[in-house]
Design a protein that fits this description.
The chain is an alpha/beta fold. It is 44% helix and 17% strand. The protein has three domains: 5-38, no CATH class; 48-191, NAD(P)-binding Rossmann-like Domain (Rossmann fold), CATH 3.40.50.720; 207-305 and 326-431, RNA polymerase sigma factor, region 2, helix turn helix motif (Rna Polymerase Sigma Factor, Chain: A). The chain has helices spanning 5-10, 58-69, 85-95, 105-115, 127-132, 150-158, 168-184, 194-202, 228-231, 236-239, 249-257, 259-272, 310-318, 332-335, 350-360, 364-380, 386-399, 408-431; strands at 11-15, 25-31, 34-38, 48-53, 74-81, 99-102, 120-122, 139-142, 162-165, 189-191, 211-218, 279-283, 289-295, 300-304. Strands 7-6-5-4-8-9-10 form a seven-stranded parallel β-sheet, sandwiched between helices. Strands 12-11-13-14 form a four-stranded mixed β-sheet, covered by helices on one side. It is globular, with a radius of gyration of 22 Å. It starts with a helix and ends with a helix. It binds nicotinamide-adenine-dinucleotide and magnesium ion. Nicotinamide-adenine-dinucleotide is lined by residues 54-60, 81-82, 84, 103, 143-145, 148, 166-169, 193, 245, 247-248, 250-251, 309.
């Protein structure tokens, strides 16, 4: 359909009276004095079977809600969680998955005791990988947070699954390897991140050579406009209050430091093959424009919507089609004003650090990511002041030798070294 824009414009899609007997719609092509009924591409499409990794997290919960609202299109076969046994039990009762992986051993026992008769609760450290490699699902929703997402996502790509990717850290630490692997296995990685979903939609129907610039929008987080002096005193509770989005703790702190936008610059580079110099960031506090693309003729396309992760998740799961939804709609007149500012990389150095490691290449981005995960955790536990997050990451990437990454094992090594270095550095600071 995407190759036939003129035809597409003339097609009206009408719902069938009985969706249980025929999923999807018929297409009615109106040509003057003629009415042709075409079989739709969607007509006999069966349900997409999902494996939701990180189902107890913010992305996971939103994904289950998308699936729950569209039972004709999605069926959830696998769930995974870590320590939130209570929520996982609730999800298992509602979804009835074939199997679940629970990483935390205490939570695993609780889940098994409560709902072991309803599903298989897989044992052991390899449970995530075991599910990722199974052959009876279509799409992995990669919703784990942090480096933990890398191995299961890699396994799913090797198994030829479609990847709906929220776990940006996978592309940050191993972008070159992961994109090569996806090409080798003919796997499409569809971004869930709202900015990248926006870019994906803006470039539909365009030639790669015509893309001249990607403009990622950033909310600016809770500390937009703060001075370096003001940032010294901010607490985890303040940093966890994101103005627009409700997300997991790690990404919320990343948004406050602007590291999230830095990780997204790297993610955009690997997803869309655009040079770091052609990726800009603009602060847009309302989070209504999710990102923009500038083309060679000076035209700029933007994608807009309310800040609701169900929409980009839905798009990643339904691409290349659009399936109707009843999510809240945007009322642009009520929003009234959209504003834009330059980011402030002096006060928020994480954004600059992300550009630096992207230009350096090799293991530098894996070091940045590992140092960031450790530093964010230390900040949340009161072991590091807020500006200490960027300081320690910068020190880590300057101190550690950087290598070329030729395999996932190389990435694991780089991650481990940077984690150890950062933990030791924080422990030393704390004991001074
Ligand atoms: P979250 O903290 O809410 O959820 C993380 C999930 O991963 C949970 O199910 C948790 O149990 C699981 N998990 C955490 N550590 C684990 C481990 N070591 N082993 C196994 N499972 C583990 O995080 P989130 O906000 O849903 O974010 C998930 C990913 O999506 C992140 O990479 C984030 O950057 C990205 N993302 C999130 C949003 C959002 O709106 N939340 C938007 C864009 C991108
Ligand atoms: Mg984002």
């Amino acid at each position: 359909m995407r190759n036939l824009p003129c035809l597409h414009l003339r097609i009206r899609r009408l719902p069938l009276p009985d969706p249980s007997t025929m999923q999807g719609r018929i297409s009615v092509l109106r040509i003057p004095s003629m009415l042709v009924i075409l079989p739709s591409l969607q007509m006999n499409r069966s349900k997409k079977i999902l494996a939701v990794f990180g189902s107890t997290g913010s992305i996971g919960r939103n994904t289950l809600e998308v699936a729950r609202r569209h039972p004709d299109h999605f069926s959830v076969r696998y769930l995974t969680g870590n320590s939130n046994a209570e929520l996982l039990i609730e999800q298992i009762r509602a979804v009835r998955p074939a199997a679940v992986a629970v990483s935390d051993p205490v939570a695993r026992n609780t889940v098994r005791d409560a709902v072991g008769d309803l599903t298989t609760v897989l044992n052991g450290a390899n449970a995530l990988d075991e599910i990722a490699g199974r052959d009876d699902y279509d799409t992995m929703v990669s919703g784990l947070v942090g480096f933990a997402g890398l191995l299961p996502t890699t396994t799913a790509i090797r198994a030829g699954k479609s990847i709906a990717l929220a776990n940006k850290e996978t592309l940050v630490v191993a972008g070159e390897i992961i994109t090569a692997l996806a090409r080798e296995h003919n796997v499409r990685i569809l971004p869930i991140d709202s900015e990248h979903s926006a870019i994906q939609q803006c470039i539909l129907g365009e030639h790669d050579a015509d893309i001249s610039r990607i403009i990622l929008t950033a909310s600016g987080g809770p500390f937009r406009g703060y001075t370096a002096e003001q940032l010294r005193g901010v607490t985890p509770a303040q940093a966890l209050k994101h103005p627009n989005w409700s997300m997991g703790n790690k990404i919320t702190i990343d948004s406050a430091t602007m590291m999230n936008k830095g990780l997204e610059v790297i993610e955009a580079h690997w997803l869309f093959g655009v040079d770091p110099d052609a990726i800009d960031v603009v602060v847009h506090p309302q989070s209504i424009i999710h990102s923009m693309v500038e083309f060679s003729d000076g035209s700029v396309k933007a994608q807009l919507g309310i800040p609701d992760m169900k929409i980009p998740i839905h798009y990643a799961l339904t691409w290349p089609d659009r399936i109707a939804s009843d999510y809240e709609r945007m009322d642009i007149a009520r929003i009234g004003t959209l504003t834009f500012e330059q980011p402030d990389p002096e006060t928020f150095p994480c954004l600059r650090l992300a550009y630096d490691v992207l230009r350096t290449g090799g293991s530098a981005a894996a070091s940045l990511n590992a140092a960031n995960e450790i530093a964010v955790d230390a900040f949340l536990h009161g072991l590091l002041p807020f500006p200490g997050i960027a300081e320690i990451i910068e020190e880590c990437i300057n101190q550690l030798p950087q290598h070329r990454l030729s395999s996932i094992d190389d990435v694991l090594d780089a991650d481990r070294d940077a984690r150890n270095w950062t933990k030791n550095r924080i422990a030393k600071t704390a004991s001074q």
